[in-house]
Amino acid sequence: MSKLAIDTGILLETGTNELEILEFYINETLKEGQPPVKNYFGINVAKVMQVIETPNLEPPESAPHPSFMGTIPLRDLILPVLDLSVWLDLNMPKTERDIVIVTEFSKSVTGFLVSGVIEIHRVGWGEVIPPSSVISQSTDSIIGLVDKGDHFIQLLDLETILTQFEPDDGLELKRADKEYKVLVADDSATIRTMLENNLSKANFRPTITTNGSEALKTLTEYKQLAEESGKDINEFVDIVVSDIEMPLMDGFSLTKNIKHDPILKKLPVILYSSIITKELRHKGDSVGADMQITKPDLHTIPDKAIELIEGISA
Questions:
Q1: Model confidence over 145-188: pLDDT tens digits?
Q2: Response regulatory domain spans which residues (predicted)?
Q3: Domains annotated on the chain, with CATH
Q4: Is there a contact between 42 and 154 (Cβ–Cβ < 8 Å)?
Q5: 282 and 261 in contact (C-beta within 8 Å)?
Q6: Which of the ends of the chain has fewer CB neighbours closer than 10 A, N or C?
Q7: What phi and psi values does residue 192 have, to the nearest 5 degrees?
Q8: Three-state SS across the chain?
Q9: What is the pLDDT at residue 137?
Q10: By C-alpha distance, which of 130, 98, 102, 101 is closest to 115?
């Protein structure tokens, strides 16, 4: 298998509300005898290890999921390869020119079979359009769209796919002695539901938002209510829990806004992502995040939130 290097050559500054995406495409046969059409997608470059040519796998009969193509050796790893077109319900014709995007996030390395890659784009989260405003029906794995003029790039939440592929078992959660109020920001309905359930079980009253912009608007409303009623901000919210990658405003920019506000800055902020590298951890520290965890450890958020709230109030 030959491989293509992925080198962005750009280090994004902290709090600029930007990301780099690898654009790729999946061909789809809509009608027999007609040429396939391209569907354009994008994923965060930081999650991409490399791109390799198709290993021409034949799905095993005992595959745990229709998308499972088999496993391949890479370096000192044996990694699963998933056919992304199956997840997206696209009739992708297989060719010798197909490629596998090898990703590393959520403590796992996975290959995703697609038709081809195009290029890397640097975009602002403010340019990412929520899918509900463009398409009437979308899978939970599509978190936003980028308008390139002649086509849309659909941004994929690969974590959602892996969560459905390997669902977590139920976990015993510590329960807080008193009810705390938490504001959650995440663009994935799957993650939002999981966090809402876990936090509720731990005696939190969650307010759920779908991106950093919506979360900041909600916090601004809480701040105004607190000022008008002469109450402390903690009467309305005790802690903020946010994903890093979100349309309109990412978690770094949300945290930066919170920590630069004279009223909101007292609120502890937990940031999470499928990838918490040294560089990302530095970015989170620089904007004032109180804690940063990876998505495989999301089940620890209730305990961590209790520790932060009670540690600050002690």
A1: 999 999 999 999 887 777 766 555 455 678 889 999 999 999 88
A2: 181-310
A3: 3-164 (2.40.50.180), 168-313 (3.40.50.2300)
A4: yes
A5: no
A6: C
A7: -60, -45
A8: CCEECCCCCCCCCCCCCEEEEEEEEEEECCCCCCCCEEEEEEEEHHHEEEEEECCCCCCCCCCCCCCEEEEEEECCEEEEEEEHHHHCCCCCCCCCCCEEEEEEECCEEEEEEECEEEEEEEEEHHHCECHHHCCCCCCCCEEEEEECCCCEEEEECHHHHHHHHCCCCCCCCCCCCCCEEEEEECCCHHHHHHHHHHHHHCCEEEEEECCHHHHHHHHHHHHHHHHHHCCCHHHCCCEEEEECCCCCCCHHHHHHHHHCCCCHHHCCEEEEECCCCHHHHHHHHHHCCCEEEEHHHHHHHHHHHHHHHHHHHC
A9: 46
A10: 98
At 313 the pLDDT is 52
CA separation for the pair 196, 208 (Å, rounded)? 8
Residue 51: both structure tokens together: 């791109």
Q: Which two tokens stand for residue 83?
A: 């056919």
The predicted model scores a pTM of: 0.72
One-letter amino acid identity for 37? V
Edge-to-edge strand order for the sheet containing 99-105?
3-4, 48-53, 99-105, 108-114, 77-83, 68-74
Q: 282 phi and psi, to 5 degrees?
A: -65, -40
User: Which is nearest to 252 in space by CA: 229, 283, 276, 231?
Assistant: 283
Cβ(55)–Cβ(72) under 8 Å?
yes
